[in-house]
Amino acid sequence: MRTISFAILLIASFAASSQRQSTPGDTATSDRQGKSGTVCVLPNSSDPPTRISPGGMYNPATLTVRVDKGKPILWPHQQPVRIENLSLEGLHLVVLASDGKRIQSFRFRFSDYKQSKLCLYFDGYQGVQLENGANALWCKCR
């Protein structure tokens, strides 16, 4: 009987701890319910890098970005491109490729950034940067 009571108590506390409580200042939950997320891909130079980058050498003419299982898009060189209608829940995979080869990839959650609009930048020297659009001064996609 004690084992059953302990098991029920353990399950109840696990269920309670796995549910996230929303507070009035929690914009990550209150502002995003029922909406989708956007990643704004900022343009980079069309010139090949002159130094070694964290992702290795790449060809700007063939540089692509893909989020999850979406279609790869050419990295923009003039105007920002928006990748829209991304789920605000769960983990997303971002993959950069050049000349058909993966050069960098990483995973992110919108909840880690407390915003549904994020900015993605790649300059070839500092690697990929993903930031909250409201806090990143370099984010020009509004």
Notes on the protein architecture:
The chain is α+β, with helices and mostly antiparallel strands and 142 residues long. It has a domain at 35-132: Sandwich (Immunoglobulin-like). The protein has helices at residues 2-18, 27-30, and strands at residues 37-41, 64-67, 73-74, 81-86, 92-98, 101-108, 117-122, 128-132. Strands 4-1-7-8 form a 4-stranded mixed sheet, with no helix packed on it. A hairpin with a 5-residue loop joins strand 7 (117-122) and strand 8. The longest helix has 17 residues, at 2-18. It is globular.
In short:
With about 140 residues, the protein is an alpha+beta fold.
Provide the spatial order of strands within the biggest beta sheet.
Answer: 4-1-7-8
The CATH architecture of one domain can be named as Sandwich
H and E string: HHEEEEEEEE
| Range of strand content | 25-35%
Class from helix and strand fractions: alpha+beta
CATH class of one domain: Mainly Beta
Cα shape: globular
CATH fold field value of one domain: Immunoglobulin-like
Describe the SSE topology.
Blueprint: H1 2-18, H2 27-30, E1 37-41, E2 64-67, E3 73-74, E4 81-86, E5 92-98, E6 101-108, E7 117-122, E8 128-132
Parallel strand pairs: 1-7
Antiparallel strand pairs: 1-4, 2-3, 2-5, 5-6, 7-8
Annotation keywords:
30% strand, 142 residues, 2 helices, Immunoglobulin-like, four-stranded mixed β-sheet, alpha+beta, four-stranded antiparallel β-sheet
